[in-house]
Specification:
Helices cover 81% and strands 0% of the residues. By secondary structure, the chain is an all-alpha fold. The longest helix is centred in the N-terminal third of the chain and has 30 residues, at 30-59. The two termini are 20 Å apart.
């Protein structure tokens, strides 16, 4: 339980880490943003392929894996369809913190719940190395997410310190949902395999629907591709050393 709490907290606070550069710089170049997001995508694909899916098969069955994957994808799809999405380019003209900004924050909080559950399910697994590995993957994804949210808030006339505070609150939601996922999987044995599969589906949806398209619209596809591969290889090494 303590490991799950620490891992989920570090993963969640990676959101704040992503926002911190805006205290010192005004903006991040499109090229480096694409490289960072692609690197994150590589990490998440690797963690899903070499961590979540094999462990879900080991702890359950092919049917549960299939159902969990599909449910994870569908849930994330419903979230994407029914809540606002942060589009920094579209809202560059926003000059005040309005209802739209509040809805975007709520959307990100809802979006963070499945990520926290993923971490909790992973720590409940019999594979002791899976929890830290998934926490690293989710944390890597949280860094550009925190950066994008902070940029959006600052463009909505929110002070930098207040933006960091809001980003922190959205990250803490992951800690709460991770604890819920950990206890739920600990008391309902079959839920571990399903939860790991759910996490895999959710992460794959995020990668293919959000991260990869985001890196292929600004003319930096080639460096982003190399960054994706480096992220994937790095997570293979992390997976190997965590066993």
């Amino acid at each position: 339980m303590v490991s799950a709490l620490i891992g989920s907290f570090i993963s969640a606070m990676a959101t704040v880490l992503g926002a911190l550069p805006l205290l010192f710089v005004k903006k991040l170049s499109e090229k480096w943003k694409d490289i960072l997001v692609a690197f994150t995508a590589g990490i998440m694909v690797s963690a899903t392929t070499f961590g979540l899916i094999p462990q879900a098969l080991e702890e359950s069955s092919l049917w549960i894996l299939t159902i969990g994957l599909l449910v994870g994808i569908i849930v994330l799809d419903m979230i994407e369809k029914n809540v606002p999405h942060i589009d920094v380019e579209r809202y560059k003209s926003v000059k005040q913190f309005d209802t739209k900004s509040l809805l975007v924050i709520i959307a990100l909080i809802i979006h963070n719940i499945p990520e926290g559950l993923s971490t909790g399910f992973s720590y409940a697994s019999v594979n002791d190395g899976l929890g830290p590995m998934i926490a690293i993957a989710i944390g890597a994804q949280n860094i550009p997410e925190g950066l994008i949210l902070a940029v959006f808030l600052i463009q909505s006339s929110v002070s930098k310190l207040r933006a960091i505070l809001i980003v922190t609150v959205t990250g803490l939601v992951e800690v709460i949902s991770a604890i819920i996922g950990y206890f739920a999987a600990s008391y309902i044995s079959w839920l571990i395999g399903f939860g790991l599969s759910f996490a895999a589906g959710a992460m794959l949806f995020i990668v293919y629907k959000e991260l990869i398209p985001e890196t292929h619209g600004h003319g930096f596809e080639r460096p982003a591709t190399y960054s994706f591969i480096i992220g994937l290889i790095l997570m293979i090494y992390i997976s190997y050393f965590f066993g």
